Amino acid sequence: QNMSQCWLFLLLLLMGLCQKEEVCSKSVINSCSDCIKSGPYCVWCQQLNFTKPGEQEAVRCDTQAKLLERGCKAEEILSPPNSDTVTKNDRLSSTFDQQEPVQLAPQEIRLELRPGLPTTFPIHFKRVQGYPVDLYYLMDLSNSMKDDLQNVKGLGKDLFAALKKITQHAQIGFGAFVDKTVLPYTNTNKDKLQRPCDAADKQCQAAFGYRHVLSMTPREEEFKTKVTEQFISGNLDSPEGSLDAMMQASVCGDKIGWRNSSTRLLVLTTDAGFHMAGDGKLAGILEPNDEHCHMENNLYVKSSEMDYPSVGQLASQLDKNNIQPIFAVTKNVVNVYRQLSQMIPKSEVGELSSDSRNVVRLIEDAYNKLSSKVTVTHDNLPENVRVVYTPRCEHAGPPGENRGVCDQVRVGQKISFDVTVTADTCMKTTSFTISPLGIKDTLTVTLSTNCECQCMDPQVANHTHCKGKGRVHCGICSCSQGFVGQFCECSIGDKDEGTLREACKDENGVECGGRGDCVCGRCECHTTESGNYYHGAFCQCDDEQCEKFQNKLCGGKGKCNCGTCECNTGYEGSACQCTVSQEACRTINNTVCYGRGNCKCNRCECDEGYQPPRCQKCLGCQNPCLTKLNCIECLGFDQGPFKKNCTEACSKSVFHQMVDQFTLSSKQCEQKDSEGCWVKFKLDQLVGKDNYWAEILKSRGMVEIILTYIYIRPVAVHTSHASLPAKRFSNFRQHNSPKIV
């Protein structure tokens, strides 16, 4: 017995730990409405005299448990609830009796939600026995499907027999496709366009993109007659225009003959892959697919003018028109279409034999899979609305935000889903629809939010609670003109109340930073949750928001003042996390960071360009050989641009010595001075950024220019002095580069 009691205690303890704690995350609260918008568990106390003198009215906003703990009476607590009202709930149908059946209930619901607070309601689905089926057989008539066409011509009887097992209200339509009749998809030679098949094929129809052959019909003979009239065609490349054909079959509903109340199946049979959006560029077709119907005389007339649709466009139109595709494809492309099926909800893939003999069984299997799997989802949700579906059935999928799934559902079996809706913010009345994929039935959800408080205010114009100078609204005073303050105790006379309140607004325009009350033009700051006071002209400061170190405010080694740590003697750092020390910042010559940075937390924080650990080198600085040349010239040789003010310009940044031979180990500088002579010197950077010791070589080098003149004989000399030797003036050039002497 003791062991049982222990287990019971542990179970209760775990249940208590797993319970979600209700939290009210308050921000700027000036009214009951602000409170309700702050979070799903925020409630408002409208009790008079609930707040203490000088205490912010925002304390009226908290969780119900905390308000009760502070002394607010339960009947004085305001918390707008969620509400849901079913406005249309027709009973689910059992069988199809030529009238519009009801397979989803309810059909309309109105929700009024509190922001952030979820509400859950059930929906029910039951597939009607004998529900009509429309099947559109869309066949690839390229040359490689020749054998398949012969078998399909005798398919009508078996196909109708299979559908009769499902419903007595079945219809079948037929369409065919090849590809766009332009290069590089189809040979555009005039004769080849008229007869694109092999020479051995006696029966061949002209090249085409997509042709609608037979609208939905319940007559087997009509299907057989129309299909028998079809012959193969041809094209050049392997991928076909199947997505073009599927798009037109989806959006041209009146031409195909889809019924309003039916399960719509589109069976695509092919042995090749498919072209998609972007492939049209190969033929110079740049206009995107517009997802509209372009059928004239049963032909897709925009085939050569408009690009193929994208998979996303096709999936959207199939879903919009409640069409469920079945891809009956040969073994060589099964994997391609399985990947396509993953991107198209409510679709199936079956492996077609090389001559299509198994297509009826394939369609039966695919239909059973599609019909036994019920997927409930929604159309485009309004912003800031979330929906979660939880299936309630024998073979239920996991709860999901996008959809709920029940598998292995039998015809006539009733299943349910719990739908949880959450509105994250306040919003105007909006709506969205929920429906099972591939089924016409929908549930319209009309959604609004409840962001206002229905307070029971006393009907007294000048209430004593407000010093006789205002009304009470939701427990707080709404002052008459000329009076302000928590209890309308401040008379502003002829002054403008707005002007007084402006004096209390911070740089962001928030009155007292949302942390105090503006009383007669000055902020009276509130206490923090821990009992300390906000401070500052606009209550902008508190002493609890400083950086922490080892989970202690200011590392336990300082005082927090208005968000900044003021460290105790011997400590430094943004969180007083370091002892004051310069040991690691000291250089060989006992300086700190070479005077080119600050030592903080025993590490050098170098000036721009200088590199840690001790700021000795500067990778991004200008070459001092160039920047100090003018000072070297005036200090060493009393010439150059700084000659007249050399002492003022250079004596504080360059300390020099004239030498016959260098003693410094630094890099030698060799620059041309203002007189064209070469000056050699070495620089050693001292402490600081602009301090150098210079050794200047006493001797300067002159520039030698050697010129060579080569004489050539002129071709002709027209002069009276023809007896003089001919001079050659060509090829005058400077020989070799300047040399130092």
What does this structure look like?
The structure is a single chain. The chain is of the alpha+beta class and 741 residues long. 18% of the residues lie in helices and 27% in strands. Among the domains are: 83-129 and 374-449, ntegrin, alpha v. Chain A, domain 3 (Immunoglobulin-like); 133-372, von Willebrand factor, type A domain (Rossmann fold, 3-Layer(aba) Sandwich), CATH 3.40.50; 548-579, Laminin (Ribbon), CATH 2.10.25.10; 583-618, Laminin, CATH 2.10.25; 624-701, Hormone receptor fold. It has 16 helices and 41 strands. Strands 4-6-21-20-16-18 form a 6-stranded mixed β-sheet. Strands 10-9-8-11-14-15 form a 6-stranded mixed β-sheet, with helices on both faces. Strands 5-7-19-17 form a 4-stranded antiparallel β-sheet, with no helix packed on it. Helix 8 (242-251) runs parallel beside helix 10 (311-320). The longest helix is centred in the N-terminal third of the chain and has 17 residues, at 2-18. The radius of gyration is 45 Å and the shape is flat. Mean pLDDT is 85; it is low at 1-5, 11-19 and 706-741. Residues 625-707 form the Integrin beta subunit tail domain. It is found in: Cell membrane. Keywords: Cell adhesion, Cell membrane, Disulfide bond, EGF-like domain, Glycoprotein, Integrin, Magnesium, Membrane, Repeat, Signal, Transmembrane, Transmembrane helix. Belongs to the integrin beta chain family.
Number of helices: 16
* Average of the residue pLDDT scores: 85
CATH architecture of the domain at 133-372: 3-Layer(aba) Sandwich
CATH topology group of the domain at 133-372: Rossmann fold
Radius of gyration: 45 Å
Q: Order of strands in the sheet with the most strands?
A: 4-6-21-20-16-18
Helix fraction by DSSP (H/I, runs of at least 4): 10-25%
- Quantity of strands, as a count: 41
CATH homologous group name of the domain at 133-372: von Willebrand factor, type A domain
